[in-house]
Amino acid sequence: MIDFKELLKEHGIPPSLQRIKILEYLHNFKTHPTADMIYQALVDEMPTLSKTTVYNTLKAFAEKGVIVELSLFENEVRYEYNTTPHIHFKCIKCGKIYDISKTFKCLKDEKIEGHKVSEHHINLKGICKSCLENAKG
Q1: From the centroid of its chain, how far is CA 51?
Q2: How far apart are CA 107 and CA 47, in angstroms?
Q3: Which domains are present in the chain?
Q4: SS3 of 112-137
Q5: Are the C-beta atoms of 26 and 38 separated by less than 8 Å?
Q6: Residue 22, class by beta-carbon neighbours within 10 Å (0-12 exposed, 13-18 middle, 19+ buried)?
Q7: Residue 30 CB partners (closer than 8 Å, separation 6+)
Q8: Would you tell me the crossing angle of helices 35-42 and 51-63 to the nearest 10 degrees?
Q9: What is the DSSP string of 27-61?
């Protein structure tokens, strides 16, 4: 069991109920949600939660390395708890985004055409296996 309160403290973020709930949501739901999706999911449980609080919290989490802020496809910013390198795959039929546990370590700290790579993000589009199976049936 992850102690989200301690995790926030370790990253220099004062824990609050709202911050803990946002972090728990990101940990429990691997859907790469937008800030608005997170707000909609939590507002019934926490009626005093504001969209501004969600946006500010996510920004602080990303700046401190607690979560990853993703600019995936169509300029939409999404968030995820998984900070380890991996690939993102977006289905062009259902719109779901999947994590693929593959990395390209050969790019880490490499120089490409004179540019030093410090991090990389790989985004793929296609049709997910669920949509392919549904099309067969």
Answers
A1: 17
A2: 45
A3: 4-80 (1.10.10.10), 87-136 (3.30.1490)
A4: ECCEECCCCCEEEEECCHHHHHHHHC
A5: yes
A6: buried
A7: 80, 81, 82, 99
A8: 120
A9: HH--S---HHHHHHHHTTT-TT--HHHHHHHHHHH
Q: How does pLDDT run across 60-119, given as a tens digit for each residue?
A: 999 999 998 887 666 778 888 887 778 888 888 998 888 888 766 666 667 778 887 776
Query: The tokens 């993703």 sit on which residue?
Result: 70
Check: CB of residue 75 under 8 Å from CB of residue 89. no
Strands 122-126 and 87-91: parallel
pTM: 0.73
Q: Are 54 and 38 in contact (CB under 8 A)?
A: yes
Q: How many CB atoms lie within 10 A of CB 62?
A: 16
Whole-angstrom distance, CA of residue 1 vs CA of residue 136? 40
